[in-house]
Design goal:
Blueprint lengths: L17 H6 L7 H11 L4 H10 L13 E6 L3 E6 L2 H7 L14 E5 L4 H9 L5 E2 L5 H8 L4 E16 L9 H8 L4 H6 L6 E3 L16 H4 L9 H10 L3 E3 L2 E3 L7 E7 L3 H17 L2 E7 L1 H8 L7 E8 L9 H4 L19 E4 L9 E2 L11 E5 L5 E4 H8 L7 H17 L2 E14 L11 H4 L3 H9 L12 H6 L11 H8 L1 H4 L2 H6 L7 H11 L2 E2 L2 E18 L3 E18 L2 E2 L19 E2 L6 H10 L4
Parallel strand pairs: 3-21, 9-10, 9-11
Antiparallel strand pairs: 1-2, 2-3, 4-16, 5-11, 5-16, 6-16, 7-8, 12-15, 13-14, 14-15, 17-20, 18-19
Helix pairs in contact: 7-10, 19-22
């Protein structure tokens, strides 16, 4: 710790991911809060420090906030977040120049409900004004048919499926796992919850549907799909010596093919769609059952300890939704399978391997710091069959910078293994529904084709907007208010106004880049202005090139004179603005009245071990 504002990190081992981790992380506790303890530890040796730590029975940390809203009330049911007073709030406008705080009540109330049924009741009773709980399609129809209410849905860039434990025969045979992947009609699975908010997912690889184009062609060829072909699945099992007797499949040693799938009973959407998949397995001839468990038990014990035959889980949970960010997932993808399949766990890190073309060729890399172990990632028994060492793969993956040949190679290897071994049978990907009272905001301007199709990142900020002291995966209302994405009806949201008048680019270019619109776009300005019936100021960029020729004469020892001419071109970019009124629109001046508003935001926080804490950050519907 250098001072109150600077902390220096010393890494004994380096990976290219460290800058990414540091830049996207935050200090949970400011240094002055824990400085007294550090000062005491500085005078102690190791033995004394250990004893000192065990003697700390209570440590009262004063409240601190790294956000314009501070926690003003806590109970078992409600959290109140109150805006800083004006004398402190003014400095926050330097961070959030488009904030729409002035249009809302300074206190937002977060209500922790017991699930989507209670949340729906709260909406209909007017106790909630904004919500991002995962309602079913049928429940959303109720919301949208209720006067004064509406909803929208955004992809959560996550794919769900069923992990199958390979430690149990015959699930250690890749072809058996592949056969189950071909048994399931995923459209039917998604329809069980509603095709408007659930989409069939076919990739056993951790690739989010819709992001395929972000991968280079040489990596994209390893993105493969499971098919819906029960006849093919039956042929595969028969080729392995399985027999179907009285409607059920039996292994060559005479045992019934059985799969018990565990899932968190409180995750209604997961359990509903998993139940449909299990029913399809039953119809195919697998003795399959779905067993619901307490949410805490499932996430803290069953999944992480590999205590399952099958388990509902993520294949990818927005950690790596595209090629350049896939490192976020591949840095440790094993939390989705737990100890059943895991690097650095003896007995769970070596599994069968084959390339998608049906061959096997080894992958052996030279050892390099900090990987000083055997560089064998894939080795072959014959030309069609081999094994992968996930521990070795993980070590090399962790030192491969995105965009490098080794990064691509590690991705090809793991995608090929996912395709061959099918660690998780894919089922569906989801859209997260957001419900809101129309008197609270009008987000529909962000769903116009001119924005959603051309600048989707701006729309997705409604869901993934970074906030406060960290990155909230789902944005609460007071968060998107701070970024100025929405405002009450009749008020132009500050971001929309900045787009229309051009100040987003002329005054806040860093925010323009952050919102995914780094360059001025008059057509976007016209579109936004037309929606709100306001004038817009086109921002145009022109480039002027100036060429300068310089002649230099050099004389060398009375032997020869060399004359060289260098041409230098300098580029000057000029931004010009002019005011235009959107075609077929009128300019309307409205009086804005700040009305009292309680932002009731439904959040369910499940605190169970580290993984469950991560899950709770991503979900609010169970």
């Amino acid at each position: 710790m250098l001072n109150n504002y600077t902390i220096q990190f010393l890494f004994q081992r380096w990976t290219p991911y460290i800058p990414y981790w540091l830049l996207t992380s935050w200090i949970d506790v400011p240094y002055p809060v824990w400085k007294p303890i550090v000062d005491k530890l500085k005078t102690m040796n190791v033995t004394q420090a250990a004893k000192f730590a065990t003697n700390i029975t209570e440590y009262v940390v004063p409240y601190y906030g790294l956000y314009p809203y501070y926690l003003s009330y806590v109970s078992t049911t409600y959290l109140h977040f109150t805006l800083e007073p004006p004398n402190l709030l003014s400095s926050w406008y330097q961070v959030f120049p488009f904030a729409a705080w002035q249009y809302y009540d300074p206190t937002a109330i977060v209500w922790e409900t017991g699930g989507n049924t209670q949340a729906l009741s709260g909406m209909l009773a007017g106790k909630i004004t904004y919500d991002w709980i995962g309602l079913s399609e049928a429940q959303l129809k109720v919301v949208n048919s209720t006067p004064g209410w509406s909803s929208f849905a955004l992809p959560v860039f996550s794919t769900m499926g069923i992990a199958i434990n390979p430690h149990y025969y015959p699930w250690n045979i890749p072809q058996v796992r592949e056969a189950i992947c071909d048994v399931i009609n995923r459209t039917e699975v998604a329809a069980a919850w509603g095709l408007a908010i659930s989409k069939p997912a076919y990739y056993p690889n951790p690739v989010i549907p819709g992001t395929e184009s972000t991968y280079p062609p040489d990596v994209r060829q390893f993105i493969t799909s499971c098919s819906y072909d029960p006849a093919k699945a039956a042929q595969m099992l028969e080729s392995l010596g399985f027999k179907k007797i009285n409607g059920y499949w039996y292994t060559p040693n005479g045992t019934q093919l059985t799969l018990y799938v565990y899932g968190p009973s409180g995750f209604t959407d997961w359990m509903t769609m998993a139940a449909d998949a299990v029913e399809q397995m039953q119809a195919f001839g697998v003795n399959a059952k779905l067993i619901g468990q307490d949410v805490g038990v499932f996430w803290s014990t069953t999944l992480p300890n590999g205590q399952y035959g099958g388990a509902t889980t993520w294949i990818n949970s927005a950690n790596g939704p595209a090629y350049s960010s896939m490192w976020g997932l591949l840095g440790w993808p094993w939390w989705t399978t737990g100890a059943a399949i895991q690097a650095w766990k003896s007995g769970s890190d070596v599994w069968p391997f084959q390339w998608p073309n049906g061959t096997c060729s080894p992958v052996i890399l030279p050892a390099q710091p900090p990987v000083l172990t055997n560089g064998t990632i894939v080795w072959c028994i014959n030309s069609t069959y081999g094994f992968i060492n996930l521990t070795n793969w993980q070590m090399f993956e962790n030192i491969a910078a995105p965009g490098t040949p080794n990064y691509d190679l590690m991705m090809k290897i793991i995608f090929a293994w996912y395709d061959y071994f099918v660690p998780i049978v894919p089922l569906y990907s989801k859209l997260e529904p957001y419900e809101y009272m129309k008197s609270v905001m009008d987000p529909n301007w962000l769903f116009q084709p001119c924005i959603l199709n051309k600048y989707p990142l701006l729309t997705y900020e409604l869901e993934f907007m970074p906030w406060g002291y960290g990155n909230g995966l789902y944005s609460n209302l007071h968060i998107i208010i701070a970024w100025g994405l929405v405002a009450p009806p009749g008020v132009v949201p500050p971001v929309a106004q900045a787009i229309a008048n051009g100040s987003l680019w002329t005054k806040y270019p860093q925010y323009a880049a952050f919102l995914g619109i780094p360059n001025p776009d008059p057509s976007l300005q016209a579109c936004v202005a037309s929606y709100f019936h306001i004038p817009y100021t086109p921002v145009t960029t022109s480039t002027t090139a100036t060429t300068t020729t310089t002649t230099t004469t050099t004389t060398t020892t009375a032997v020869s004179t060399v004359t060289s001419t260098a041409t230098v071109t300098s580029t000057v970019t000029t931004t010009a603005v002019s005011t235009t009124t959107a075609v077929s629109t009128v300019t309307v001046t409205k009086t804005v009245v700040s009305t009292a508003l309680i932002a009731g935001i439904v959040v369910i926080v499940i605190v169970v071990a580290a993984v469950a804490a991560l899950i709770a950050m991503r979900r609010s519907d169970e």
